[in-house]
Design a protein that fits this description.
Helices cover 31% and strands 22% of the residues.
């Protein structure tokens, strides 16, 4: 579950004069692929990204959809739920990695999750997570 602390700092883009100091400035206009199989989380993530000025790609709730989006769309970064209805998201991560597109993993699996060595440097956000933390991690990887 994603937690919204009702902090208005992530809810809207600040005036143009303040944009450089805004912690999510890099998300403005970024195309972010969202791969998540829990509908309520999808809505929360979508809302937070849109409020930060990002364009949501997807969202994808299964592996097939996510692989199609990676193939067909221009993407700046991605949020990947590790387990999609029992399927590992690693094939999507592999395609993103090959294309040089940064991503972060979003998971409820805690310490039991083992990342493939190839992805060990990708940020991992544990569920539940605050919206601000997710946006901060994402802003840190967007080129």
């Amino acid at each position: 579950m994603l937690l919204n602390t009702h902090d208005p700092s992530h809810r809207r883009v600040p005036p143009q004069s303040d944009i450089a100091q805004w912690p999510y400035a890099k998300l403005e206009g970024a195309r972010i692929l969202v791969v998540e199989d829990e509908a309520m989380l999808v809505l929360e993530i979508e809302s937070a990204l849109e409020d930060a000025g990002a364009e949501v790609v997807g969202p994808c709730m299964n592996l097939r959809q996510a692989l199609q989006e990676v193939q067909d769309r221009e993407i700046d970064a991605a949020i990947l739920d590790v387990n999609l209805h029992g399927e590992d998201v690693f094939p999507v991560a592999e395609r993103l990695f090959t294309r040089g597109i940064p991503f972060l993993f979003h998971t409820a699996h805690g310490e039991r999750m083992e990342l493939r060595a190839r992805f060990e440097n990708a940020p991992v956000c544990r569920k539940p997570i605050l919206v601000e933390d997710l946006l901060t991690e994402l802003a840190g990887i967007v080129p």
